[in-house]
Structure formats: structure tokens, C-alpha cells
Amino acid sequence: MPSGNPEGNEPLLRFQKEMNHYYVARGSSVQLPCAYTHTVDSQQYTEVLWSIESADREEQPIIWFTGGRLYSDLYKPMEGRVHFTSADPQNGDASIIIKDVRLSDTEMYRSLVKKLPELDKKILDLTVMEAPRQPLCSVDEEDNSMTLKCSSLQGTPPLHYIWPKSSGNKVLPPQTTVDPTGATMHFNITERACGSYRCTVESMVGTKHCDLHLDCSLPLANNVSSPRLLTTTAVAAIVVTITTLFIVTVVLAVFLYRKRKEQSQDIELEK
């Protein structure tokens, strides 16, 4: 990043990082780096000021270190959420961390480091985004074709969907078509369509996925297997049902055993 020098006559600090654009998920923490070295030996205090730069409003200071003192309550919406990463920002590290970031924190941030006669600044662009929520997988079957659908109800665009096959030879069925967003996938029903599929939705700040299983255990009259959908929820329901039946069977068997034993004891006593 070219160093800025509005006055044109002060020596410049040498920043060790280039200008960056940061993308983070809402609710997370982000560190905005600002490492520097001095080029002139000076007995002056190092002053560090971080502020928000905006085209439609005045510069808003958010944290300030000057004269050996720290001022971190300059901007109420960020009070308690912004801190220097170093206990002493005048020793070459003026980086800050913003905790529990909000969508409203999307701004351009400027760090101004001054130790007379040196002066320089660095600008970083921060974008806070909603991370995608776990998507919902579903399937539509019509005639001899099938459409797999995937949708996340949350997430800042752009969202990108991918549909890899996660079982068998992992090759998609012939003549598979996918819409431009990747959210739906369409193909004809064949045995090669059977197996497990995973839909992954991804953005610049996170990924989530859901799974579908097309079961080909029941053949049609024309001897072509008919894929049947087994979502993760359906599989769990089947497992719960089988487990419940097993427990009921065991309890019933124990009850009958005890009943027969009691009857045998009664017969012995009558003798």
C-alpha cells in the first residue's frame, strides 16, 4: 500500500501489512492488523487513533491511545467490544480486535499512527455477513425424473450450492442438469441415480450441508430400480421405531417368562 502523507513533509512509518478487505460472520470476532516500525529515533509518545471512515458522515473515532493513556469508550455502539490486541500499542503493534461483530459494523476503518515527526495511516475494509444456516434438502419425483432441491433460509448473498454424490462411485447420473445457483439438480431415474447426496451451501463466511439418500431396494415392474428418498430425519425415525419394537419385545418376553415361572411355582405348592 502506498503510504499516505497529506502534508508532504513528514517522515513516514513503514507499515508491515498491506491494505486488506475482511469478511466475517455476524457474532464472531475479527482482528484488524496494524504493525509498524519507526524510522526516526524520537522521544515523543506514540499516538494511535482508530476511526470509522464513511462517505456520508464525519469521521468517527472508536479507540484512542495517546500520552500513555487509553480511551476506548469513544463510540457507544462499539463500547466494550473493541480493544487493542497489545497491552502497549506504542511498541509496534497497534492492531485491534472487534468482538461480537454486528451487521452495522460493516465500514471502512482507519488506523492513524503518529510519533512526531512521523505520521501515517492504514485503511481496512470490513464486511460483516450472515453465515448460511443449515440448508433443507428435499426431492420432487415426476414420471421418470427426479429433482433434488437445497435451500438455506439464512445467509448473506452470494450463496453457492454444490451437490456431490457421496457414495458408490460418486459419479453423477447421466444427463444431470444443475441450475445456475446450484440449488437444484435434475436427472432421470436410473440405478446409477441411487446412493447418497450431500448439498453444501457456502458463502464467504461459512458452510453448512444436508444429506439425502436415494434407496433402490424396491424394484418396479419393469425391473428398473425406483430410488426412494431417505433423509437423515427419516433414517433416525426408522432407527427409533426398530429400537422401540425391540424394547417392547424384550419387555414382553420377560413378562411372559415371569408369568410362567409364577405358574410353575403355584403348581409346585399345590402338590
Question: Can you tell me about this structure?
Answer:
- There is one protein chain.
- This protein has one helix at 232-270, and strands at 14-15, 21-25, 30-32, 36-37, 47-54, 57-66, 69-71, 82-84, 96-98, 107-115, 118-129, 136-142, 145-151, 160-162, 177-178, 184-188, 195-203, 206-215, 228-231.
- The protein is mainly β and 271 residues long.
- The protein has a six-stranded mixed β-sheet with strand order 2-11-10-5-6-7, with no helix packed on it. It has a four-stranded antiparallel β-sheet with strand order 12-13-16-15, with no helix packed on it.
- A hairpin with a 2-residue loop joins strand 10 and strand 11.
- The longest helix has 39 residues, at 232-270.
- The radius of gyration is 32 Å and the shape is elongated.
- The chain starts with 13 loop residues before the first strand and ends with a helix.
- Mean pLDDT is 80; it is low at 1-18 and 218-226.
Summarize the structure.
The chain is mainly beta and 271 residues long.
Features:
disordered N terminus; 271 residues; 1 helix; six-stranded mixed β-sheet
Give the total of beta strands. 19
Question: Please, how many helices?
Answer: 1
Whole-number average pLDDT? Answer: 80
Q: Largest sheet, described in full? A: 6 strands, mixed
Element order, helices and strands? EEEEEEEEEEEEEEEEEEEH
Distance between the termini: 104 Å
Low-confidence stretches: 1-18, 218-226
What is the molecular shape? Answer: elongated
Strand order of the largest sheet: 2-11-10-5-6-7
Q: Radius of gyration from the CA trace?
A: 32 Å
Strand content: 35-45%
Derived structural class = mainly beta
Q: What is the helical fraction, as a range of percent?
A: 10-25%
